C-alpha cells in the first residue's frame, strides 16, 4: 500500500508525517468524519463551562461545541495547520485523537490517484474530472490531440482512453472508421 504523506507545519503533524508505520496503523483505527461544530452564545446566568482545549473556564460571549465538548473559539484548531475550525466551516474531522480541518484530513488520510493524461499524482482534496474509470486534473481534461479545453455541457469522445473533441473525433472517424464512446 502506498500512502502519500505531505510535509506539515507543526511538530505534532510533522511527527505523524515522519512515521509511516504510525500512519498505517492510524488508517485502520476508528475515524469520525464530518463532526458538526456548533457556535453557542453563553447565557450570563449559567455556570461557565471548561474548555476542552486549554482547560480554562469559557467566559467569552460565544463558545463552540464539538465532539460533545466545549471550546474557546481560539482553542478549536486544526492540529496540522492551526486554522481556527469555527471560522473555516461548520465541520471538523478527527482520527487518532487528532482534530483536523477537511483539507488536512484529506491530505493525511485521503485516497489519491494519478491523472490519466499526465500520470502525475492527484491530491485527494483536488477537484477532478472523470470519464469512465479515468480521473483527470481539471487542467488536463482537454482534447489530447488539439488541447481544446472542454466547458460544461461539451461533448467529448473516448478512444483507447484518449479524450477527443468532436472535431478530432470526426476527423479520426473519417480516416480510420473508429467509433469511440460518446460521453
From TrEMBL:
Transmembrane segments: none
GO cellular component, one term: nucleus
Source superkingdom: Eukaryota
Keyword annotations from UniProtKB, A to Z: LIM domain, Metal-binding, Repeat, Zinc
One GO MF term attached to the UniProt entry: transcription coactivator activity
Keyword Disulfide bond: no
CDD domains: LIM1_LMO1_LMO3 (cd09388)
Stretches assigned to the LIM zinc-binding domain: 49-111, 113-175
Pfam (any one): LIM
UniProt xrefs under InterPro entries: LMO_RBTN_TF (IPR050945), Znf_LIM (IPR001781)
GO biological process: positive regulation of transcription by RNA polymerase II
Gene3D superfamilies per UniProt: Cysteine Rich Protein
Protein name: LIM domain only protein 3
Organism: Accipiter nisus (Eurasian sparrowhawk)
Lineage: Eukaryota, Metazoa, Chordata, Craniata, Vertebrata
